[in-house]
Amino acid sequence: MLAVHEVDRLGRNLLEGLVVLNDLFQRGIAVKVLTGIAAGEHIQRSFILDIALALSEDRRRDISAKTKNGLEAARRNGRVGGRRPVVDNDKRAAILARRERGESIRTIAADLGISIGVVHKTITQTTNQSQQTDQDPAQAAKRD
């Protein structure tokens, strides 16, 4: 017997859930649903299991839509999700100046209290941006 907290744990969508249920039942494996409208033991597909799977897919779709709408509304209001950047313009200038003087990435990272990866990424991004500007001055003028 397979125990699941809720039917929606069997698949990411209705079709996947139905396929998993059919496969389990064909193998003779019962499913025990612990919570939700389909709570109980099931040895074969039933209308209530199908409804529970359909409702969980609909709920997932609603959550996804609400999340996307919320993020979009936040962007319109000038808020952006995610972590704040570790490197501001002052740190970027310090990293680049120290690297030009020949200091190692490890030393720069330790002194500024940031990771080696962040220092490397900052140097790489700046190098890539300057190479793009050198290759296509017309594009660089459009960006500014």
Automatic annotation (TrEMBL):
<feature type="region of interest" description="Disordered">
    <location>
        <begin position="125"/>
        <end position="144"/>
    </location>
</feature>
<feature type="region of interest" description="Disordered">
    <location>
        <begin position="66"/>
        <end position="85"/>
    </location>
</feature>
<dbReference type="GO" id="GO:0003677">
    <property type="term" value="F:DNA binding"/>
</dbReference>
<feature type="compositionally biased region" description="Low complexity">
    <location>
        <begin position="125"/>
        <end position="135"/>
    </location>
</feature>
<dbReference type="Pfam" id="PF00239">
    <property type="entry name" value="Resolvase"/>
</dbReference>
<feature type="domain" description="Resolvase/invertase-type recombinase catalytic">
    <location>
        <begin position="1"/>
        <end position="78"/>
    </location>
</feature>
<dbReference type="InterPro" id="IPR036162">
    <property type="entry name" value="Resolvase-like_N_sf"/>
</dbReference>
<protein>
    <submittedName>
        <fullName>Recombinase family protein</fullName>
    </submittedName>
</protein>
<dbReference type="InterPro" id="IPR006119">
    <property type="entry name" value="Resolv_N"/>
</dbReference>
<dbReference type="GO" id="GO:0000150">
    <property type="term" value="F:DNA strand exchange activity"/>
</dbReference>
